[in-house]
Amino acid sequence: MEGSILTSIQNSMTTLGEQVHMLEQRVGANEDNVEELVVRVKQLEKDNSYLLDKVDDLENRSRRSNLRFVGVQESAEGSDIIGFMSRLIPQLLGRDAFPTPVIIERAHRSPTSRQSDRPGPRSIMIKLLNFQDKVKILRLAREKINLEFNGKRIFIYPDFSPNLVKRRRSYVPVKRKLRKLNLKFFLRYPATLCVVIDGKQKRFFTHKDAEAVFMSITNSPG
Length: 222
Prior knowledge:
InterPro entries: L1_RRM_dom, Transposase_22. Keywords: Coiled coil. This is L1 transposable element RRM domain-containing protein. The chain is of the alpha+beta class. It has helices at 2-62, 81-93, 131-144, 162-169, 172-180, 207-219; strands spanning 66-70, 104-110, 123-128, 148-149, 152-153, 155-158, 185-188, 192-197, 200-204. It folds into 3 domains: 1-63; 66-159, Alpha-Beta Plaits; 164-219, L1 transposable element, C-terminal domain (Rec A Protein, domain 2), CATH 3.30.250. The protein contains 6 helices and 9 strands. It has a 4-stranded antiparallel beta sheet, covered by helices on one side. A hairpin with a 2-residue loop joins strand 8 (192-197) and strand 9. The protein is elongated, with a radius of gyration of 31 Å.
């Protein structure tokens, strides 16, 4: 009787051991699968980031000859916005700088319809035929500094994708600090901050990198 009970217990122990072994194998296989999935997810995230960057780059290339005019009062353009902008540009920046008319392919207000919750006039977006005209307009706008039309300040900006605008704006806090230190800097396309430190130009590809260098400058002795 005791022998049969012992045999039954031994058989149960053997069965239990086999089940434990099977579970261990399954757990091990699942761990391998999880590790493989983690690797695949990381690769997919990397690929997705690369594709998003490519799409953003293509979008900005399509906007290469675009400009955004901010502050032009509503309805000032009348029914011919292209003709209006062709006259406004030399009026703002100097007629002598434009011996031949600037050729504008397209122009429109942005957004296309007014929104009651957004005060002020909508921006005017233009697409120029010649990229060099865009470069000249931006240069003249920087040199002239104050641009006015009908007593209102006008601002001229490049037209970037929302993602690139966000990246460039991320430098605003550190740029304020650099101005306080009287350090020369400029933002290079697409979103690289260049700072002149001790006569040498340093480039920063993220605002975090630039912030870290700013902290090291302010914390250095002397």
